[in-house]
Write a structure and sequence with these properties.
Length: about 350
């Protein structure tokens, strides 16, 4: 009899998640039946969307998330013993599954092809959901051209760090926005970004103007809020904005209503999101949101391309790895507060 450990929801999050909001419980799993397989978690992913979607998990249910797991028993020929799968099993150590379909997020458990010497954890990051978010979300929506200026927020995180490097591969000038000088220096010195802005710098707006003298052609938005309002004001005519996420609001108890600050009339006005429309209209901008699984039918294309760039030395990836299933909630909260550089991962 296999015993699984799992995190169940004790209390819905209120602001930043607390250690008492989730509890670890044990569960005895029944034997594998026809069509099923048993998978043992090797790495868990902790991602911002889990905070944004946490209210969809009822009290007492397993908390949501994707993992890399080894298939240890199987009565399903699509999921053979010894292979590793990427699957949305939630925060749990052992899982009995048929492989999907799943209602939220990753539609189906998929088998990792020959990892070719790359770490299995990459399949939760650059060779998985966040890498494909960068690849498709940036290239399909921003359609960057060589020489254009690209701004990326959340730039030192899992998605942003890959977007900026893809933009460099495509011949763009890239400015990353991140939450510390240390992260910014990493973007420039290690990842080849042209420059960075620390969004906590009180002179953020002035720095943005200084570093984008020709304006901004493409903005990849991971954070929303005031940072994004400032970038929108810098957009050039026919600029493209890929709206990936809005992490600056995920822990807010109330939505602040899309306020954006606008100056220029002798006073500073606080106006509703209408100011966004005014930039969009006057500069004929294209602003598009997306969900990465809309490209599920092209999933392996993104993975193969990112793998190729890694092997050519054009794409670097960093991970912040926390050890121990018991530390998953802590790793999640750390990531929400900027404790990660690159992809936040938990090693079981
Ligand atoms: N649309 C999709 O299909 C899709 C798919 C994947 C991810 N996403 C979105 O993409 C974004 C990035 O996800 P990720 O997985 O790459 O996470 P991540 O960037 O690796 O981690 C989250 C980062 O957000 C930053 N952050 C936290 N609070 C912030 C605030 N108030 N203002 C600005 N930055 C803040 C922190 O970095 P700092 O130290 O720089 O603050 C933190 O490291 C999220 O919004 C996520 O929801 C969307």
């Amino acid at each position: 009899m296999v015993k699984a450990k799992k995190y169940i929801v004790q209390k819905q999050f209120d602001g930043l998640p607390k250690s008492t909001d989730l509890t670890i419980v044990e569960e005895e799993l029944p034997p594998v039946t026809d069509g099923e397989f048993l998978a043992e978690a090797v790495y868990l992913s902790v991602d911002p969307y889990m905070r944004a979607m946490s209210d969809s998990v009822p009290i007492g249910e397993t908390f949501l998330g994707t993992q890399v797991a080894e298939i240890t028993q199987s009565k399903n020929s699509d999921y053979p013993v010894g292979k590793h799968t990427v699957a949305p099993f939630g925060w749990r150590t052992h899982t009995l599954s048929t492989g999907g379909p799943f209602p939220i997020g990753l539609p189906k458990a998929w088998i990792i092809p020959d990892p070719e010497g790359l770490p299995l954890s990459f399949y939760l990051g650059v060779l998985g959901m966040t890498g494909n978010t960068a690849y498709f979300g940036f290239l399909e929506i921003c359609k960057p051209k060589p020489g254009e200026t690209v701004v990326v927020s959340g730039a030192a995180g899992a998605v942003g760090s890959i977007v900026g490097q893809i933009a460099k591969i495509k011949g763009c000038k890239v400015i990353g926005i991140a939450g510390s000088e240390e992260k910014g220096k990493w973007l420039v010195n290690d990842l080849n970004f042209d420059n960075f802005i620390n969004y906590k710098d009180p002179k953020f707006k002035e720095k943005l103007e200084e570093l984008t003298p020709k304006g901004v052609d493409c903005y990849f938005d991971n954070v929303g809020g005031q940072i994004s309002s400032e970038v929108l004001h810098r957009m050039n005519k026919h600029g493209r904005i890929s709206v990936c996420g809005s992490i600056s609001t995920y822990n807010d108890k109330e939505v602040k209503g899309g306020y954006a600050e606008m100056g220029g009339f002798g006073v500073t006005l606080l106006v509703l999101a209408g100011v966004v429309q005014s930039d969009i209209v006057s500069k004929q901008l294209k602003m598009e949101g997306f969900m990465v699984y809309q490209w599920w039918d092209r999933w392996m294309e993104g993975i193969e391309q990112n793998k190729k760039w890694i092997k050519e030395g054009k794409l670097k990836c960093s991970e912040t790895v926390t050890k121990g299933f018991e530390n998953t909630l802590k790793a999640f909260v750390d990531m929400l507060q900027g404790g990660n550089t690159g992809k936040a991962i938990v090693q079981i």
